[in-house]
Fold this protein.
Amino acid sequence: MSRANSIQYISAMVILSTLFLFGFKVDKISPKLQEKINSAVTGTYEVADFTMNWVEISPELNKKTPSELGGQNLFEVMSQGKSLGYVYVGVAPSLKKTFDYVVLFNPDMSIKKSKILIYREDHGRQVGSQRWLKQFIGRKSGETLVYGEDIDGISGATVSAKSMTLAVNQVLESMQVLKESQVFK
């Protein structure tokens, strides 16, 4: 194969790979992740029987939010006909990979709990410590969090801790946008 053909072949493969990776939107939550979300909901809201109703966000409104809300990642938690709050499921970058997290909200849009669900790195696992994650409890939609000021850092998990702080900050900002747009009852 000539050098020009090799370059064309590599270029075509890069374009196809990019289309494959970013052209498909995964709207479904894996069974393993769903199990962890259910466990977080059961423990946080102290209920055994609940439903999670997907909160559909229009593409126009999604563009106004810093967090991605176009997939199935925002739910209202209901039990016995009563709203217990909301659940946001997200993915954030760690040093080399990503981790899945959940932010559970009270009906007033304050954080009830946050939790790292699946962490894929060998180092930095301290970010999943409930002792560190407690710093997010009570934070309200629209509130801005600054890593190192409002949220303590973690030695050995700096990238993941900064990433989680940024992610929660964006979720709080997004919830405020939804609140102002009267998405929540």
